[in-house]
Amino acid sequence: MRKIFVLGGDGFCGWPSALHLSNKGFDVTIIDNLSRRNIDNELGVMSLTPIATIQERIKAWEEISGKKIEFYNIDIAKEYTVFLDLILKKTPETIIHFAEQRAAPYSMKSSKHKRYTVDNNLNATNNVLCAIVDSGLDIHLVHLGTMGVYGYGTAGMKIPEGYLEVFMKTEDGKEVSSEILYPVNPGSIYHMTKTQDQLLFLYYNKNDKLKITDLHQGIVWGTHTAETKLDERLINRFDYDGDYGTVLNRFLMQAAIGYPLTVHGTGGQTRAFIHIQDSVKCIELAIKNPPKENEKVKIFNQATETHRVRDLANLISEMTGVEIQNVKNPRNEDAENELRVENKNFLELGLNPITLEKGLLKEVKEVAQKYTHRCNKEMIPCKSLWTSDTKTKVLI
Ligand code: NAD
């Protein structure tokens, strides 16, 4: 059986991916330090859906499927030798790396949160790369990056899958071309760490010939996958709060409880999206199509649609009758932007995407309305502010 490590396998993307891969016959080991559950405690929020403990999740999966998933509580950013020893003991073929602090608003709350996000995300990624080199094993690393590294301003061109060909003139007037990473423009400390991840990959690929696939994912929406639906103990998390709730899931929750859909600024920001079921399929496709020997870092845009935020709000408002409310944008970003994304790599590998238009209402009914009684309305607005008209608080 092909062995896979899922780092961050207790999280929103990691848990359904672990189940999907286990169902497909991979031997899955989850490594997670449960920091995301601790952040819920810190913020005083909880997933809208009643998520079971990781131990209960794994036990339920074994009962239902007869398949075993192992779990290790390891902090990838801090416990290097423990992590390396586990790699040497288990010899995984692939490592999927989801184990980072992933909320832009959380990363902007205070200097404490900025420093935590940088320490955690950069050390986690560097430790994974170092450990693969130290192990001497031929391991394919699949990392979850984000479309957000590009800052969304693309002057009308489609964002390519990672690389851009640039043409320059030498001093003697000869035209030469070169391929570079598509330029980044991070809009938060979280996104900044993801841009740094890209350079770490470029470096370790060049220097140590590591096989790496970096998936530039859009905003993930939805909750269920085929596997998480099988039993309530397998249910995925659904974040709707101002820090971790991504825009679409926040709108779905608001629609379910009749709370106005809060659009930041004019809602003219265009974002890229993907359903969680498609996200797990893309990960499987990436695992099955690793880079060849000496190939550069493979970069895929893991997004299936782009929409303006106000268009999404209008769509949900029309479906549900809930009104829209424009509020001040807490982010430091352009009020309006275009975003076009090249995504032919996954389509060519056979992805058949779930569209927002088809899946949205189902999500409102099956998840958001079902668990309305667990919603704390006070936690919905985003209270993290980007700019220093609010000075960041020094918390030590
Ligand atoms: P999540 O917070 O739900 O899951 C991340 C998991 O990693 C958590 O279970 C957490 O406990 C664990 N973790 C964090 N730091 C760790 C460490 N040092 N050691 C061990 N475990 C650690 O986040 P998610 O939504 O599942 O996102 C996963 C990845 O996908 C992130 O890297 C994120 O940047 C990327 N991504 C997510 C989205 C989205 O919409 N959710 C969009 C684009 C990219």
Which ligands are bound?
A: nicotinamide-adenine-dinucleotide
Given the helix and strand composition, which structural class is it?
alpha/beta
Uncertain ranges: 390-396
As for the CATH topology, it is: Rossmann fold
Whole-number tally of structural domains: 1
Spatially, the strands of the biggest sheet line up as 3-2-1-4-5-9-13
Mean pLDDT: 91
Q: Roughly what fraction of the amino acids lie in strands?
A: 15-25%
Query: What proportion of the residues is helical, as a percent range?
Result: 25-40%
What is the CA-CA span between the terminal residues? 46 Å
Main sheet specs: 7 strands, parallel
Tally of contiguous helical segments:
12
Give the CATH level 1 class. Alpha Beta
Question: Which key features would you list for this structure?
Answer:
single chain, 396 residues, alpha/beta, Rossmann fold, seven-stranded parallel β-sheet, three-stranded mixed β-sheet, 12 helices, 16 strands, disordered C terminus, binds nicotinamide-adenine-dinucleotide
Task: Spell out the blueprint of helices and strands.
Layout lengths: L2 E5 L6 H10 L3 E5 L3 H9 L10 H12 L4 E3 L7 H11 L3 E4 L6 H4 L3 H25 L4 E7 L11 E2 L3 E7 L5 E7 L7 H20 L2 E7 L1 E3 L25 H11 L3 E4 L5 E6 H13 L9 E5 L2 E4 H12 L3 E4 L12 E2 L2 H5 L7 H14 L27
Parallel strand pairs: 1-2, 1-4, 2-3, 4-5, 5-9, 6-16, 9-13, 10-12, 11-15
Antiparallel strand pairs: 7-8, 12-14
Helix pairs in contact: 1-9, 4-6, 6-7, 8-10, 8-12
The structure holds nicotinamide-adenine-dinucleotide.
Pfam family, one: Epimerase
InterPro entries: Epimerase_deHydtase, NAD(P)-bd_dom_sf
Protein name: NAD-dependent epimerase/dehydratase family protein
